[in-house]
């Protein structure tokens, strides 16, 4: 295990150094060199934050749902982000996106997404017939409803407004605001520390409702808390770079295959490093070889969609 972790960490480090220093015209050590490195460092820091949030959130969601096919996007988180961005342009125009950029907007969007998830979980888990399957079904329906509302409003926009909005709805690592990174790192770091201290409880939770309950866990409370953590991680990642539907699914599934284990002490580090290698390596190849860094999220989603279909067809069931 440790050998594989070291190999993945080394690959991620090499990719990060390549993204930071490859093809810089100014001489190494000059003022211009460090200026370019600092700008690229914002992109690398964004990728680290996104890789941590998406990978950990997806693994935790699989643990909460006892299903490795599902992703957090099925709960309508990303659809809620899309409808919020679309409503902003629909009611106040395209200039409102740039005018409202800042930490306050990110905090409000993240708070709304987390509040939506928390209310949904408490409502569905508090009832007599409340269960995880009902919650997932409601999440799918709400996600479809948000998508329909977004599509309706987008059809009412002018072409120029739609272009501005579309640029915001595609994940783009290069457009992250550097002001967001320290706060996002602080929140995600705190959440990951909490998750890591509870990794053994998560192993028990992954055994299923009956086994976890017999071993003394409050299954409903643990799952609700876990899903709120997932909502926090996904909300921060989505508000920073936009929706990434299949990225977490790819790295989590590969982590399961590489570790051959369900232990969170093994899966979580592997998922994070795999996510980091995917983002950094993909960005390096697309930027410095094909000069198309802006399509990284599109390619990840395309490959992730194919990977999801292949995995589903091989498994044969949800």
Query: How do the SSEs run, as a string of H and E?
Result: HHHHHHHHHHHHHH
Give the distance, in angstroms, between the N- and C-terminal Cα atoms: 29 Å
Structural class: mainly alpha
Q: What spatial form do the alpha-carbon principal axes imply?
A: globular
Poorly predicted ranges (pLDDT <50, ≥5 residues)?
none
CATH class category name:
Mainly Alpha
Write the SSE topology.
Layout: H1 2-21, H2 31-65, H3 77-92, H4 95-99, H5 103-126, H6 132-155, H7 159-169, H8 180-197, H9 199-205, H10 209-214, H11 219-241, H12 247-259, H13 264-288, H14 296-315
Helix pairs in contact: 1-2, 1-13, 2-8, 2-11, 2-12, 2-13, 3-6, 3-7, 5-6, 5-11, 8-11, 12-13
Provide a quick synopsis of the model.
The protein has 318 residues and is mainly alpha-helical. The protein has 14 helices and no strands.
Textual characterization of the structure:
- With 318 residues, this protein is mainly α.
- It has a single domain, classed as ABC transporter involved in vitamin B12 uptake, BtuC.
- The protein contains 14 helices and no strands.
- It is globular.
- The relative contact order is 0.17.
- The mean pLDDT is 80.
